[in-house]
């Protein structure tokens, strides 16, 4: 029995129970409503190019080997979920957790860890390194199209937890089973930060002339709530490759959250979305 079949028998997590509508641009000039029946599937080789595309701007500050990382993701069938339309292999969204110990020799993992370690502030570094060196940490990669229906998000994260449980119980070797016994998840969340407006020179400032200097918008909205449950968190600025506009900076928020806390947070996120 495959893990996805097992999920389908236990609940409706294997695929969306209803058709979801997705708004797609028509040549960038107008919008059209396209009805899409989303399904959750295991990673497979035909997903490679689509997954690689999702990783293109994953870490804009680093020269990430996106092909290597995509290969790891599509090759790890036990833990990982692709959101596709029925009968297609194009990926609208994905989530996976990669063991940093198991894939330590992979170029993309080394690039990510080198960047994160370098950017970790000195006051935070002892706690961060303690967890990284003494715990089984899974790098969570969650990427999706910006207009993927938000109702699917709690199901994606729940599918991740289910996949991990399945792998611990059913993998062929004890070594593989142990590799999925994650103590912590490592998240790298993209954040857009609106800078504070400055008062015009020589003029008395008015309250309306200012914006909150800490207005942050997370690429994945749920990361903001998960970060609040983290044991360690820090952020660093990256090049604004998307050129959102004047007054907007881009940063990466790095945080370590216990797997149990991640799982417990999903109920609150689902309730917030009323799903």
Automatic annotation (TrEMBL):
Name this protein carries in UniProt: BCCIP family protein
Alphabetical list of InterPro entries matching this protein: BCP1_family
Annotated region (Disordered), positions in chain: 1-25
Record's compositionally biased regions (Acidic residues): 8-21
Record family assignment: Belongs to the BCP1 family.
A Pfam family matched in the record: BCCIP
GO CC aspect terms: nucleus
Organism of origin: Achlya hypogyna (Oomycete)
